């Protein structure tokens, strides 16, 4: 019997049931474990970039610096697909209880790495484990919590990124400077296992049953491996501009396209109403937002002369806005998920317009403080709404597959549009004067964002009309 049908919950008074169920006794341990695991994954994501320059220098691996991130992303893509497949066919408990120890093993291996190849292998393990965590957690949220509390659960997951976003880089820097960079990894591993303990009882009781009627999806595992290879190819091509890279990047993009036709719900690339358009919207939102964000510090430091610390303030404000947006969407019960996703698109478009406005030297640099806060709020509203909307409209047997599709769409959107941003800035300008490239990139991202808003609004109208 799942926790959502526990008699202890159904016998509660109406007044008690109106409160959020996240912290009442049947769910408290799962909620603590959920937030602890997400927070630790976030700390690893936010902190490793601070420690990596020191790591690469000590291990004589500067030439492999960017591959630490690239291998992590590619392994995450593969882990996401495999976790979705296992969640649908064996229940979410198995992939989650495999993913967390795998992530912890990657942390331990990184902390003990004697050279850069071992560190890269550890990053691949971390990516495989970390990429496998989100999908079973999504499925468990749908199984454990009542439907009315799922938006709050996703809002809490977003809020779990706030502290790591604010202090993760600084804490990682202090540990690297005053202890050793190895403790950036080793210090997290026991806490990951502690989170597993908090999750275990609920996961085993609610997540061990397989979904009825799980579909056989031929070619899913080869497509997942192809997506990982394609992600590596796109990122390598973006980092090494040139004729050969253009050819390889094109081949990698084609491979990704073919793989994602297998890995995404039917109709995603045609923006079919319902689950497919929400999966597509997730990739467009992530790509537009993070492609623009990648150039915010560059514009502020190079064009406006901001210090590196001050140039990072908009990103912190964006993270705070994200958490606020995730909180607000959980309270807007009368607005459709398509409506909230469309609102998120419009706020992100406004934020990208703010980046374009500060690209010239005469633009007011302070404007991005406001615009990126709005963009972060838009992402909190829309990204959380895609997850809630997809889970609410998925058959139980397809929740793992559709949750994995959300994560993959997110990764693909980032990989392709961040790569596009690098190409545009390299072609139209240079790192010493990025204005022209950032202006063209901003205009392109605005068009993509408005297109995404239009597709989602059209989908909402189609659903309301019953077509």
Draw up the topology in text.
Layout: H1 7-10, H2 14-17, H3 25-58, H4 67-90, H5 93-112, H6 116-131, H7 134-144, H8 150-159, H9 162-178, H10 182-186, H11 189-206, H12 220-239, H13 243-263, H14 275-293, H15 296-303, H16 308-311, H17 313-329, H18 337-358, H19 367-392, H20 399-428, H21 435-465
Helix pairs in contact: 3-9, 3-11, 4-5, 4-6, 4-7, 4-12, 4-20, 5-6, 5-11, 7-20, 8-17, 8-19, 12-13, 12-20, 13-20, 14-18, 14-19, 14-20, 14-21, 17-19, 18-19, 18-21, 19-20, 20-21
CATH architecture of the largest domain: Up-down Bundle
How far is the N terminus from the C terminus? 36 Å
Average pLDDT confidence is: 81
For CATH, the homologous superfamily of the largest domain is named as: MFS general substrate transporter like domains
Strand content: under 5%
Describe, in plain words, how this protein is organized in 3D.
The protein has 467 residues and is an all-alpha fold. The protein folds into 3 domains: 17-210, Growth Hormone, Chain: A; 217-263; 267-467, MFS general substrate transporter like domains (Growth Hormone, Chain: A, Up-down Bundle). The protein has helices at 7-10, 14-17, 25-58, 67-90, 93-112, 116-131, 134-144, 150-159, 162-178, 182-186, 189-206, 220-239, 243-263, 275-293, 296-303, 308-311, 313-329, 337-358, 367-392, 399-428, 435-465. Helix 14 runs parallel beside helix 18 and helix 14 (275-293) runs antiparallel to helix 19.
């Amino acid at each position: 019997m799942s926790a959502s049908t526990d008699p202890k919950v159904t016998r509660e008074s109406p007044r008690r049931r109106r409160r959020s169920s996240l912290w009442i006794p049947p769910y408290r341990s799962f909620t603590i474990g959920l937030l602890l695991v997400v927070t630790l994954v976030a700390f690893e994501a936010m902190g490793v970039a601070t420690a990596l320059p020191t790591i690469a220098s000590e291990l004589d691996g500067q030439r492999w610096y960017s591959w630490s991130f690239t291998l992590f992303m590619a392994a995450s893509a593969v882990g996401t697909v495999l976790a979705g497949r296992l969640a649908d066919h064996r229940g979410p408990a198995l992939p989650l209880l495999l993913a967390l120890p795998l992530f912890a093993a990657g942390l331990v291996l990184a902390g003990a790495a004697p050279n850069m190849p071992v560190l890269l292998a550890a990053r691949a393990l971390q990516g495989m484990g970390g990429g496998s965590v989100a999908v079973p957690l999504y499925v468990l949220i749908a199984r454990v919590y009542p439907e009315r509390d799922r938006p709050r659960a996703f809002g809490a997951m977003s809020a779990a990124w706030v502290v790591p976003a604010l202090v993760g880089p600084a804490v990682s820097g202090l540990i690297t400077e005053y202890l050793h960079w190895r403790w950036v990894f080793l210090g997290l591993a026991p806490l990951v296992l502690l989170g597993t303990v908090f999750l275990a009882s609920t996961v085993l009781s609610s997540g061990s049953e397989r979904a009825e009627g799980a579909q056989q999806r031929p070619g899913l595992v080869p497509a997942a491996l192809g997506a990982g290879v394609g992600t590596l190819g796109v990122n390598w091509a973006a980092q090494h501009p040139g004729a050969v890279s253009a050819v390889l990047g094109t081949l990698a993009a084609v491979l990704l396209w073919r793989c994602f036709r297998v890995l995404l719900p039917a109709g995603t690339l045609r923006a079919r109403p319902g689950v497919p358009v929400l999966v597509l919207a997730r990739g467009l939102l992530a790509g537009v937002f993070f492609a623009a964000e990648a150039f915010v510090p560059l514009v502020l430091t190079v064009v406006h002369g901001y210090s590196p610390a001050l140039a990072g303030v908009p990103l912190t404000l964006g993270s705070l806005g994200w958490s606020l947006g995730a909180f607000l969407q959980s309270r807007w019960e009368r607005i459709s998920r398509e409506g909230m996703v469309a609102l998120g698109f419009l706020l992100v478009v406004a934020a990208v317009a703010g980046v374009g406005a500060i690209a010239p030297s005469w633009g007011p640099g302070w404007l991005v403080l406001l615009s990126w806060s709005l963009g972060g709020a838009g992402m909190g509203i829309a990204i959380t709404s895609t997850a809630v909307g997809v889970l609410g409209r998925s058959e139980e047997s397809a929740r793992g597959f559709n949750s994995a599709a959300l994560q993959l769409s997110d990764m693909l959107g980032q990989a392709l549009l961040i790569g596009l941003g690098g190409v545009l800035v390299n072609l139209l300008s240079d790192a010493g004067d990025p204005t022209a490239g950032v202006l063209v990139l901003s205009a392109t991202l605005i068009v993509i964002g408005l297109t995404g808003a239009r597709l989602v609004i059209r989908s909402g109208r189609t659903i309301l009309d019953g077509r």
